[in-house]
Amino acid sequence: MEIVKFMLMIGGMVLVTFIPRVLPLALLGKKELPEKVVLWLSFIPAAVLAALLAPSILLKNGNLYLSLENTALIAFFPTLLVAYKTKNIFYTVSGGLIFYLLISLLF
Question: Where does the chain cross the membrane (predicted)?
Answer without folding.
Answer: 6-28, 37-58, 64-82, 89-106
